[in-house]
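Email to the structure team, subject: Transcriptional regulator with XRE-family HTH domain model.

Hi all, the expression group asked for a predicted structure before they design truncation constructs. Nothing fancy, just the tokens so they can compare against earlier work. One-line instruction: predict Transcriptional regulator with XRE-family HTH domain, return tokens.
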Amino acid sequence: MNSAKKDVLDAVGPRLRELRRRRGITLAELGQRTGISESTLSRLEGGSRKPTLELLLPLAEVYAVPLDHLVGAPRRGDPRIHLRPVTRGGMTLVPLSVPGGAQAYKLLISPAPHGEPELQTHEGFEWIYVLAGRLRLLLGEQSLSLNPGEAAEFDTHVPHWIGADGDQAVELLILLGRQGERAHLRVRGT
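Reply from the structure team: attached below.
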């Protein structure tokens, strides 16, 4: 086996372990969902068991990722990202990156009826860049207004809220980690 193939196979175990940990799944839960023994999963993640198609297919299904993602295969062919916008609570979140690591989104926020915003916290950091309209950012005790061309970055452990500032929609780019993605999609749906 050439060294490039060996390197790809050696990286599968740590990638599987990281994916499982990011999803908050135990080996026992994963074993129940895939039908693969905990021992085999542990050896697979530790590198003492070589990945096979019969082991990787149920894992890809449980994690809802392409098989290429599990093995770290280089992307080939069409580099375009197939956008699947999510609309909830007056916000439209358009993914601009593939799953994994930091996530990039275009976010459209409609003007909201007047009321008291609910500040949220979650793991990670968030970076926002206003494309159009005016953004209101509540960050702890601060209330900020950002215009097109302005950006902000903050620790998301600090209670925060973003929304349109005024009666016009706001359009922005947002970068956040997986924890932030889950928090924003869940919070905006309530």
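The chain has two domains: 3-71, 86-185. The chain is about 35% helix and 25% strand. Ping us if the truncation boundaries need rechecking.
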